[in-house]
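[Automated response] Your request has been received and processed.

Submitted sequence:
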Amino acid sequence: MERTTLRELAVLFLRLGATTFGGPAAHIAMMHDEVVRRRKWLTEEQFLDLLGATNLIPGPNSTELAIHIGWQRRRWAGLVVAGLAFIVPAMLITGAIGWAYVRFGALPEVGWLLYGVKPVILGVVVQAIWALVPRAARTTWLRALGVGAVALAALGVNELVVLFGAGAVAVAATGKAPTARSLVPILPAVAGAAATGVTLPSLFFVFLKTGSVLFGSGYVLLAFLRADLVERLRWLTEAQLIDAVAVGQVTPGPVFTTATFIGYVLAGPAGALVATVGIFLPAFVFVALSGPLVPRLRASPVAAAFLDGVNVASLALMAVVTAQLARAALVDVATVILALVSAVVLVRFKPNATWLLLAGAVGGWLLHALSLAGQ
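Generated structure:
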């Protein structure tokens, strides 16, 4: 294979970060098409190895895959260039929307947009859960583990305890005891945080913790952000959180740039930058540490078992947080209908979610126009 230049890496991932909608699955499919089929930078086997590695470490899967590809092609320089190129376009777009939200979001003239988009977001999450359940809960005991995780999450047990506890149970079921290292990430989350004012260091560490421990789909981010920012710290309301999720969905690139939007809402441009750095920094560190170990990670039965448990618990968290967020999104009959229709269309026909979100925005505008006409 020919040597890949840093410019080639930058151009490719800038384009993907600026134009690829649809979440991690769509991002990964586009990367496969570009680096395996078109450019032949990686073989199918190499691509699968890297994809497997992203599922064994915390963080945003598609972003970590971009970083892995950069590492494989140009080591340290490639790791940084590919990762930043994929993140920065989405960060700038989301930051601009954060500015507009702070400036105009509370005004009735723009409220119709989020009114129509919020219920569709719930449909998108339901579709994601529907698609992932057969893969994650593929055995009877994994399904039972998932039900237990749903119950614990609904009772308010810390989301990290649910995730890593499920991973430990899954490892124990293989006959191999979990190591102390696999349980260490639980400890920082046991103590709850009291409500406090927003500072840049506290904002950074909230998102650094989230980026360091979050397994599974980007949608699991909802559970972590709700637990920290809505319940513990009370920096955001339920409605603001679902607004942030909506922005993450209607913009291209990593879903984790939701952090950029939240950071801007809480602390302006500096907050947007700090939150973005905090949530994405662990991805660069984990890829740098795991990149040379990819063959061993993929072949490890203990790592595979732990991942099974974490994945099914991730779906449990997604299900519980979807039910909780529905209270903020489903405010009348029209929003309930929008959510149900969105879920059915996504599950049955599998369109690009972006088009459905745009349809939700149009629907919100039409309902707003009708309400004005009736006054």
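Summary generated for your ticket: The chain has one domain: 6-110+139-325. The chain has a mean pLDDT of 79.
If you did not submit this request, please reply to this message.
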